[in-house]
Amino acid sequence: MSAPSEPSVARLHVAGMDCADEAALVRHALARPGVLSLNFDLVGRRVDVTFDPDRISAASILDAVAATGLTAHTHAAGDHVGDDHAHHDHHHDTAKWWAVASGVTLLVGWAIDGIYADSWTDAVFGDHGQDGHAHHPAAVAAYAVSAAAGLFPMAPRAVASLRFRRLDMHVLVCLSAIGAAAIGQWAEAATVAFLFALAHLMEAWSIERARHAVADLVGHEPGWGADGGHEAAPVERWIERFAAVYTPLVTFAALAVALVPPFFDGLWWDWFYRGLIFLVLACPCALVISTPVTVVAALTSAARRGVLFKGGGPLERAATVRTPTIAALGEAGVNVQCRTHLRQGYGGQDGGQADRAPLDRVDVVLTCDHDEDLVFLVSHARRALRVIRQNVALALATKLAFLISAVFGAAPLWLAVLADTGATVAVTLNGLRLLRARTPG
Fold first, then answer.
1. Among 66, 169, 277, 324, which is disulfide-ready with 374 (CB 3.0 to 4.6 Å)?
2. How far is Cα 148 from Cα 56, in angstroms, rounded to an integer?
């Protein structure tokens, strides 16, 4: 009887994996016998799949990812971040033209309504009351085309999510737009579809900017890369656990908002509309993307300075150190070693540590042995943790503000989509500030 095979690792590049929704979809698609573990890198559009070759093949893994509507292929550990984006660029260009078509027909609908409405304010913002909004028939046709154009690129992803019994952002936005049209809010349905199409382009642009910034600095994926594993920051794991609870909870709340209050006041359409806002806010995209973008930017700029972190875990632990010394870092659980030529060999000075730990036990490597490197290490980690906290606070505050506003009917559906998109872009750009490492003074 032959001995069992050693676990294998397939490094996949997944075109279009820009948000937690796509990552969760891939995770569900690969939840099958033989897949041992998954490690996601949203910024690099990568997922490392550790699998048992006796139970599942690399080809079957690729087929499982393809079933989600996403295109994936394997690549080597040293491949550059931006060297295989042809499919993504084509998809991005196609989505851009659908968004343009949605926006143009939305403006046509507004123009037609503006001609026949009592005022432009009424034409643009409409009425969310029990009787809906009285659109001109030609405007309704324009809004319907706008909504269809905005939703078309995301429809396959929504169908794939439903096939895996997931309510992701694609499904939630489709349901919200269809629900708004069902109660006569055609302008609102078209606006939501257009804004989400625009939001998807903005998010893809902001993530692409992060990728290019990383490639410009180090020429390949940041952090440990081919040398070992990547330890996620504790805050990343907390956000994953929070998101797993947040989305179903807010989705359930959307049903409660839509169905319970009308039994007391009879305003079924009003509460249904407010429930649609809850559906849009059920996706925690801004919250989930806030930490990995910041961590990648921090690891990249640190690597430029000659300080290599083994992921976000050591980065977060280093931020808790009060005194920038190797002893203090060791007490915080950060194993630091100084090596002048990490990739060329394991020689060099040990920065004051008598014992040289194996590479898989090292958390941070200083590629030079200047005293100010330790000061930079700690101050840079503290700055990264501050930015992470800022991003998490912004994402949560935006969600909370609009959830409360939705209950009181104070915010329209399109504004909730716009604010959620703005938060995603804002946390990404805020995280990218860490690409410029500060010299401690």
1. 324
2. 39
Amino acid at 170: H
Structure-block tokens of residue 38: 């998954």
Q: Give the model's pLDDT for residue 387.
A: 94
In sequence order, what are the beta bridge partners of 310?
none
Q: What is the pLDDT of residue 226?
A: 46
- Which pLDDT score is estimated for 347? 40
Q: How many CA atoms lie within 13 A of 318 on its CB side?
A: 33
Between CA 77 and CA 414 the distance in angstroms is: 42
The token pair at 339 is 């090596």
Phi-psi region of 291 (alpha: psi -120 to 50; beta: other; left: phi over 0): alpha
- pLDDT value of residue 81: 45
Around 244, how many Cα atoms within 13 Å sit in the side-chain half-sphere?
10
- What is d(CA 176, CA 416) in angstroms, rounded to the nearest whole number? 12
Nearest-5° angle of CA 42, CA 17, CA 66? 135
- What is the rounded CA–CA span in Å between residue 434 and residue 440? 14
The 3-state secondary structure of 76-139 reads CCCCCCCCCCHHHHHHHHHHHHHHHHHHHHHHHHHHHHHHHCCCHHHHHHCCCCCCCCCCCHHH
Q: Are strands 8-15 and 35-41 parallel, antiparallel or unpaired?
A: unpaired
pLDDT at 45: 79
Positions in the chain whose pLDDT score sits under 70: 1-3, 18-20, 43, 76-92, 118-133, 203, 206-207, 209-230, 339-361, 367-371, 440-441
Paired sense of beta strands 336-338 and 364-366, if any: parallel
The Cβ of residue 17 has, within 10 Å, a number of other Cβ atoms equal to 27
**Closest to 368 in 3D by CA, of 381, 380, 351:** 351
Side-chain half-sphere exposure of 9, counting CA atoms within 13 A: 14
Instruction: Give the domains, in start order, of the chain with CATH numbers.
Output: 8-74 (3.30.70.100), 85-207 (no CATH), 222-441 (no CATH)
Determine contact, residues 281/403, Cβ cutoff 8 Å: yes
User: Cβ distance 105 to 149 under 8 Å?
Assistant: yes
| Alpha carbon separation from 426 to 96, 138, 192, 290 (Å, rounded) | 21, 37, 20, 9
